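We read letters as residues; the fold follows as tokens. Both lines appear below.
***
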Amino acid sequence: MSSKKTIVLGITGGIAAYKMADFSHMLCKAGFDVSVVMTENAKQFIAPLTFETLTSNPCISSCFERNTDYEVEHIALAQRADLLFVSPATANIIAKFANGIADDALSTQALACTCPKIIAPAMNTAMLENPATKRNLKTLENDGWIVIPPDSGLLACGDIGAGKLPSNETLFSYAEFALSREKDMKGKHVLITAGATQEAIDPVRYITNHSSGKMGYALAKEYMLRGATVTLVTTPTALEPIPFLNTLAVNSAEEMFLTVKDHFMKQDIIIMVAAVADYSPREKADNKIKKADSDLSIHLKRTTDILTYLGEHKKPNQFICGFSMETENMLENSRKKLQHKKADMIIANNTKTEGAGFKGDTNLVTIITKDKEVELPLLSKADLANKIVSQIV
């Protein structure tokens, strides 16, 4: 991160308060400046010293605490906060927030903050489903709070149902979304394909390629963090799902084509990253290969060229980008592809440099448009996604 963002982490008196030690540490490791505000009840579950040690900041639990600069600490903190994140949030604190009550350090902090606010309710299922709690949560949403839906499972009280605090990874994704990027793509609709298509030979076997989906997922996450509405059309991968996306699962190239065809007219930007091969039969193969592959070739057919279809049917002001992996004459062949497929940008993958290509976490590409070529150094796929999106912007 270029500069530290300040997160005020509010912790209330729920059993899940102990989980906030790891969460606060996770935020600090990501480069955020974290200050913790606890209710008196929260201190019954975990000591303030824990958070002071992990965050290197004072932990506030009273409206009357003063620092060495004689500031009114809860107001001073509210003024420099970039995000207020309350987790776990009890029914009691939710009721206070919804009704503008400020009778302790955390509720006063919430009333004074003008930054974005996120709240993660965690409580007994009956309390969560009580009409008063539902009404209060709806009020907070109407007031601009982001409410993280609770998980379902075994609760501390022994009941099974909704009310469980989501994982720290889920909580972190909300903080990351709120603060890690400027929302320069807000209002834009983006469709991205990712992964390797699978062409069935029979009910057991299929043909695929080496694409891991990492580049497509990195681009989808980058657009999401910048505020775009993202549709990710993905084949099966080993990657973790990305929150805040409209994720559509496909297997074959034909399924991908039909899914993209159904959705692309609503998009402002389409990026074809998925490795979709042309699985036509081997017409020139020698007899020995033909015999060995006889059970394969009868099942393989030429797949639809999705990028060409998009180029021929794109609407005005729609931006289309494709990926190219050439084993020879990379720039020349990629520029021909840009023209023939009527795309606005082609990302040419360098397949001959160590650390680039499929499966790895880094890549080396050249961005090709009608007017220029931008050769980028070897970068992580996350950093590369940032560069590509910035070029498109």
Q: What stands out?
A: The radius of gyration is 26 Å. The domain at 6-179 is CATH 3.40.50.1950 (Rossmann fold). DSSP finds 15 helices and 19 strands in the chain. Residues 59 and 257 are 54 Å apart (CA to CA).
